[in-house]
Write the structure tokens for this entry.
Amino acid sequence: MAEQRLNQVLAVEKSTKAALERAVTEAYQTLQKPALFEGHTRTYEPFKEDDDKLPREHQIVQQTVPRLLGKIRDAMVEQIDIIATKDASNCSAQADIVVGGQVIAAAVPAVTLLALERQLTNLRLTVAAAPVLDAAEEWDWDEPAGLYKTEPKRTVRTKKTTRPITLAPATEKHAAQAQLITEDISAGYWAAQRFSGAISAPKKEAMLARLDGLLKAVKHAREHANMEPAPDAHIGAALFSYLLSGW
């Protein structure tokens, strides 16, 4: 068999699995029909030459167990060899994760790279959903609280009150005329301070950029590992040779 690479093995794994499932299913369904495995022949010989002559009767055997097992064997040998080759390749296929010329992790197995790619993709979705600090505020980091905070801001609280005003002073002939008016007066101060567990927009953007770079490096490493030659791992034929010995 010509030398294969891991990516080629992975490409045909699904089709060989489907072929094996079809072979097993068809064989099982066929084995439920015993008549297909039976045949007979019957000929008639009259005692006298001038007696009735009847045609020969026969029924051919349409299926045999060895034939069905042979189809399963062919499909299973191919599938077993693909699995063994893939697993052997996954043990030996490795690559470095390199970002910006720096080796972040060395000799990472291909299966680990595949799992890492999925995990980093999920992590990126999580980071992308993180809230950011309100850009309209100035934030300081509060180390003991583990939160961002703003400087306290004071705002005046007002309340409404009424007081009389004189519209016309009293005279000898008329009483004074007055009216109640409503007005807002300062009553106190509100001292307000905001806290946040969000992150700054620049930090979020920087983390996403690093994640994108790392994801790209992991994908490149996985592709590189999958280009490694796959070891020769043909065991299916030996298994069936033992299984069907004596047939």
Summary: The mean pLDDT is 88. The chain is about 45% helix and 25% strand. The chain has three domains: 1-93+231-247, 96-150+197-227, 152-192.
